């Protein structure tokens, strides 16, 4: 069954904004977005999937990874694509798992360093940072409207995402 729109629980943040970054895997033609450090408490638990997009969650219902397998040459280009100008930190928990979601509309800027995953045609009413370079937009009923990824970096053979993960691990161990 395909759900119409993922439901969210949005509350005041209890931790600083997580580190996050998008890495376009050149040899795979896929975008991987790491959200937060890889740690025992942030391991894969569940998902929401469409044909080309996978949202992956830990056991606390936090988004930890996004995978987009539609090659960026097939993303719609919008030269005027602008990130939301105002976004607030939030603790966002996902209320649905192991479901199929509608295929989002994928829109990128001319340089393909920014991507909007638009899950509904409805206008979002609020924007929240879920990680550095990753913003989630919700409607008035706390349903997912869009996810934005900014500052996407080209990555060959996973070198950049591996370096990013190692940096997060070092930071986590020294804290």
Please indicate the percent range of residues in DSSP E strands (runs of 2 or more): 35-45%
Number of helices: 1
pLDDT < 50 runs, ≥5 residues: none
Return the structural class.
Answer: mainly beta
Q: Biggest β-sheet: count, sense, barrel?
A: 8 strands, mixed
What does this protein look like?
This protein is mainly β. Helix content is 9%, strand content 42%. The protein has one helix and 17 strands. The protein has one helix at residues 159-174, and strands at residues 2-3, 8-11, 20-25, 30-35, 46-49, 53-57, 63-68, 76-77, 88-89, 91-94, 99-101, 105-108, 114-118, 126-131, 134-138, 144-150, 153-155. The strands form three sheets. It has an eight-stranded mixed beta sheet with strand order 1-11-5-6-7-4-3-17, with helices on one face. Strands 8-12-13-16-15-14-9 form a seven-stranded mixed beta sheet, with no helix packed on it. A two-stranded antiparallel ribbon has the order 2-10. Strand 12 (105-108) and strand 13 (114-118) form a beta hairpin. It is globular. It starts with a strand and ends with a helix. The mean pLDDT is 92.
